[in-house]
Amino acid sequence: MSGEVAHLPVQAINSLVYALLTYTPVMSMTTIRVDAEVRDRLAARAEAHGRSLGAELGAILDEMMWQGIEAGYRRLATQPEEMAAYQAEAVAWTSAGLDGLDGLAATAAEEYPEYNS
Asked: Is the pTM of this model over 0.85?
């Protein structure tokens, strides 16, 4: 095959690239045992979102975390005294001087403009 170029199907190349990028030693990997039905449901979600199974599972866990945070704020909103104390503390933190921190964003909105709508 000297001088010839091997032609691989695009799917084979994509699989190879995926394997090389996915299984790099950036973080340790593990295997979990789940029912086939659970794996299939996770795989369907992952495919619908264009993610790997691990990335989909991570996204599900992130969503659960944010739902918990939002539920906490809803509970806090039902307790006027606690909400007032929380808001007072938030004002104290957001009005704190930023002396010596030149160049840093003063607000999250400035730091992450891509999330502002």
From this structure: no
